[in-house]
């Protein structure tokens, strides 16, 4: 009995310890009451502040349905950044213009003021249903709508490490904090981005100096008449200034070491942006969504009850039932979670002796219900923020929602 009690106490202590560790955020992160997450890189040279907001459902649908246009815009912007030109036909330009106008029509209100022109990037994979907004004062970067403004003079320039901010956003939307599934319908606002590169610049200069001092001195080649064997090499004594110069070089190398141990600043900024987006997402209400199939089953009246039994067993929901005219065949329309669809066709054929044949087509995403949470078997998961939807494209299991 005593050993059992001690074992239970140890398990409880471990559970509380794990919860305490999970509740603690990483070092250097700050979250205010409004959901603004501020994170500093390990070398203390860069600080980012990110806030998360849910996108309206209509905007999410627009982003999902116009992925090809977003990819075309991204290719054009990349070619412009590299100094190249990419021709886009007039029909595609008109479609992009309509897409922009639809976004402006659905992003209304004071919190979305001029949001379309402040879009920094789409994600994940640079064309997904998530948006990164530029909310920084004094940073006017080239617009993502450059293909529509190519006749106007280019306004704005890219800051250093601009791509690091975008890469961190892409990684965060590709694998969210819940089940590491992709996000959908989330808007991240970059409200703070500070860089302290004076120390980094001085270190780079010192490294370049060291490389110039350590470079070998070119030697003159003697003529063919001069004998090479037995030649005496005269080495002049080192002056005191040379010794002090070598000491200063070694000191500079020691100064560079603490900064280099954290890796390049671009990589640290990517990791900081990724973690800031993840914690900004967790600072808001979240939801898990389940991928659903539309299921159409043709069955005779003799096996109709067995079809309903299989659907009920697999968490299906019947939407409609109608009889095909002139026959004894019933057409049943239902929805079925994707995770419950594995082996569904084989089971329903076995139970009905081949008299029922289902057809499954992906339909939509639905909010995960409590019975799926208790059973521990969730369909393809989808995360959402503040009541709006978020994506996932693989099956996963979750026992409870936080």
Automatic annotation (TrEMBL):
Composition skew (Basic and acidic residues), residue ranges: 225-239
Domain Elongation factor EFG: 287-376
Pfam annotation, one family: EFG_C
Domain of life, per lineage: Eukaryota
Gene Ontology CC terms: cytosol; ribonucleoprotein complex
CDD domains, per the entry: aeEF2_snRNP_like_IV (cd01681), eEF2_snRNP_like_C (cd04096)
Residues covered by region (Disordered): 200-260
GO molecular function: GTPase activity; ribosome binding
Entry protein name: Elongation factor EFG domain-containing protein
Species this chain originates from: Albula glossodonta (roundjaw bonefish)
